[in-house]
Each structure stands twice: as C-alpha cells, then as structure tokens.
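Page 47, continued from p. 46.
Same chain as before, 60 aa.
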Amino acid sequence: MAFVFVIYGLIVLFVFNSLTHSLCLKTKMSNEKQARVFRTINVLITILLITSYVDVINHM
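Result:
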C-alpha cells in the first residue's frame, strides 16, 4: 500500500510542478518569486499527501 501511495504522490507532485511552471511562464515571474512559489506549493502538496496517507492508514 505504501509503495502505491509513494508512486501516486510522485505523480501528483510532478503534475503540480508542471502546472506551476506553466503559471510562472504565463505570468512572467521573476526568478526569486518563482522559487518562493515552487517551495510553497511543494510544501503544501507534501503536507496534503502526508495527511491523506495518514487518513487512509487510519481507516484501514
């Protein structure tokens, strides 16, 4: 179960990073702002994935 969730998490992170990259290109953000945006989104998505995993494990 954990292996499948790790693969799912990597796919989710890849998709969100692709979308964030498109957003940064479209809005022509500076490099400093891009770094903050990527860091913030990656931290929030990681927190979301960890809490989702804990929730799934607790319901089994």
